[in-house]
Structure formats: structure tokens, C-alpha cells
Amino acid sequence: MREWLWHPNLLTPNRPDINDYKVFPCVKCNAFCVYKWLSILLAVWLGVAVLVFVVGFILGYHWLHLSAVAGLDPLEMVLFAIILFFSYKAIKTLLPIHAQALFIVYEIEDLWAFVKRIFVILIVSSSDKEPETRNAAIYWTIFEIVCLGIGAIWGLYLLYTFYKYLRDLQLFKEQNKAGEDPGEATTMNAIETA
């Protein structure tokens, strides 16, 4: 199986310690643990959103109404499902190729979330609603954009720290393959997947 989308040119002479990969503000946990728990929360959230969509379709609601209730549109559901697939693969196999693919999907999802909210501002600002209602919707959407920006920056920081651990671990394995005995490799894999 392929391990990289792009191969870094780094030397990793020492085995990476998982506790060296912390992410602010979770200084007690390592990035691997934080990423794993956030992936579980994302899976639960996506499961609830899909359930809302399915029940809503059965009851005959329009998908735009369901999108507002679930907090996701169908494209975001697909993107989050792809994110969960690559997250699961990265956590399970510890291969950096999956984390590298996550960068691409995360960027597409973040870009879509921003573009969607810009369209909301454009549509609301040209609507014929009361000025107070229109302004409140615009201010709320701007607040969402700011929160999304902060969340996107922190999410990419977490993903990069998670990726650095997988990258350094894979580089260490590749660079130390010649002097490795089978018992040590089994022990290393048992520690990593625990």
C-alpha cells in the first residue's frame, strides 16, 4: 500500500514520542488523542444529521428546511463522510497518505462553508424583509463566518499536528527499516495502535 501522496525530505533519527505533539488549548492530550475524539464527535453529529434528513424526507419536508434543521446541506454531509473515512483510515493504519488527503478535503469543506455564507449575505441583503430582520440575519452570518474562520484555522492546526506525528512516525520506520528486528516492529505497532 502507498504511504504518501507527497514524500517529505526530512531526517527522523529518533522515534517520535506521541506526547511531543500537543495542540493548544488541549495541552494535557496529544494531537492524536484529540483528533480521534473529535472524529468520534463528528461521526455522531453526522449520524444525527443523516437521521434528521431521512426522517424529514419520509415526512415530506423540503431538503432546504431539513438543511436548516440539521445544520448541514447534502454536499457538506458528503464532505464530512469523506473526512470521516480518511480520518478512520489515518487513525487505524497510521499512514500519512490519509492525513495528506484530509488536507485537501478539509480545504474544500471550509471553502464551501465560507462561500455558502457569503451567498446567504448576498441573498438576505437584497431581500425585501424588514431592515431589522435583514440586518440581524446579516450580522449573525458575519458572526458565523468569524467563528468558521477561527474553527478552520484551529482545525488545520490540529490536522497538521496530527499529520506531523504520522509523518515523523512513517519516516522513522522507513529510515530504520534496515536495522529493525521483527520483534521490535511488532512491539512498535502494538504500542501505536493502542
TrEMBL record:
Keyword annotations of the record: Membrane, Transmembrane, Transmembrane helix
Protein name: Uncharacterized protein
Species: Mesorhabditis belari
Transmembrane segments: 37-63, 75-91, 103-125, 137-163
